[in-house]
């Protein structure tokens, strides 16, 4: 059993070298949560990415200990898109932990039908009703 605990400990980032069995198990459980959160973020991103260049009504939300929002905004909505999305979280009192804005397709913020902005936001946990309000607010961004 000692060899198995040592092997598990070697797979866990940031674990001190002389960790006890209880600490190893706790660190492993925490790492599983981190990986699950990462999967949720990636699934939300993929759901919106696969959705095509539709309007922001395509807002995907994944829940765990954090909430991940991903929205695809048509090119016509680009100017100030990230600022407007962040303002939604501020109005609803939800702390933003990370946010990204990426261009998908097309060459700029013009009226190119294939161009869009992909906005992803990871925020502190929020009640489901608040998350739904945020989702609706993002979908209505013009």
TrEMBL record:
UniProt GO molecular function: DNA-binding transcription factor activity
GO biological process, one term: endosperm development
InterPro entries found in the cross-reference section: ACT_dom, BHLH95-like
UniProt superkingdom: Eukaryota
Annotated ACT domain residues: 70-142
Protein name per its UniProtKB record: ACT domain-containing protein
Species this chain originates from: Oryza punctata
